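fyi for ur records
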Amino acid sequence: MAHLFTVDNLISFVVLVVLEIVLGIDNVIFVSIILNRLPESLRKKGRFIWMFTGIAVRSLLLFALKWLLEQKGKPVFSIGDKGFDLASLVMLGGGIFLIYKTVMEIHHKLEGEEEHTKGRGAQLTLGKAVVQIILIDMVFSFDSIITAGGTAKHIEIMIAAVVIAMVVMFLFSGNIATFIQKHPTIKMLALSFLVMIGFILLVEGWDSERAHDLHLKNYAYFAMAFSFLVELLNMKLRKKTEAPVRLKDSGTEEEAK
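which gave:
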């Protein structure tokens, strides 16, 4: 164990924790939106399940990191001259799933749902929420484990960093979920951000090398940060000039008149 506590390993550990948290921002946003569809009494339990499943998924993928890297460039099947390896299929499937779920959530917030108008609400069950979180967590975990493999040299360092990052994200996820729920415009920005991430996943799944060269996620994060800053300024102005924006929500029975 002594060989793990070197200056280089400690530096790589701190850097990896920070990177894991940054890369997990989109994951936290998605989880926060999904958990807000749960009954309030189940949201904390849902966050605990997300934290433990996130740690488990990432840890398992880290142990399989060598095998996963060996599969890169080995097509599972091909369409014409285009081959798709395991990572490509995960990215493509994850991108389609994320875009579908996000667009449906946008539809629900702007248009409402038939079952909502009948008074039955549009809340998820805990089981459905957990399944969705695990599926998208597996997709987002690929970035995390690849980053871990390129930053740290020891599996113990990688897993420790992943655990710390997940705990930090868990601690802040409740506040993020509450903030998003209370501010519909922020939620729409978050949903737009997730659509961009879904599109980027599709591009990465189709041509990972070109997507890497284009640094698409950097542009997406910058756009989100800039939009978020602008909206914070707008929120500050709205407090003095007008009532807050309200969209259809699963917890209310209000309808536009």
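The first strand starts at residue 77 and ends at 79. thats all i got for now
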